[in-house]
Automatic annotation (TrEMBL):
It comes from Orthonyx spaldingii (Chowchilla). The chain crosses the membrane at residues 6-24. It is found in: Mitochondrion membrane. It comes from the Eukaryota. Keywords: ATP synthesis, CF(0), Hydrogen ion transport, Ion transport, Membrane, Mitochondrion, Transmembrane, Transmembrane helix, Transport. Belongs to the ATPase protein 8 family. The lineage of its organism: Eukaryota, Metazoa, Chordata, Craniata, Vertebrata. This is ATP synthase complex subunit 8. InterPro entries: ATP8_metazoa, ATPase_protein_8. GO terms for cellular component: mitochondrial membrane; proton-transporting ATP synthase complex.
Length: 55
C-alpha cells in the first residue's frame, strides 16, 4: 500500500509547513487592519431584577 509509506509525504508536509511558518505567515501578519478596534471603554449593562407576577 503506497499511502502507508511516509517518505515522500512527510517531506512534502514538512516543507509546506516550514514555508508557511517562515515565509507566508510573517507577510500576512505584517498587514495593518483596515478596521482598527475602537478605544472605547466597555460599558456594563444595567441589570434590574425581574419581578415575577406569581410570587
Amino acid at each position: 500500500m503506497p499511502q502507508l509509506n511516509p517518505n515522500p509525504w512527510f517531506f512534502i508536509m514538512l516543507t509546506s509547513w516550514m514555508t508557511y511558518s517562515l515565509i507566508i505567515q510573517p507577510k500576512i501578519l505584517s498587514f495593518v487592519s483596515e478596521n482598527p478596534l475602537p478605544n472605547k471603554t466597555p460599558t456594563t449593562p444595567s441589570t434590574t431584577p425581574w419581578t415575577w407576577p406569581w410570587t
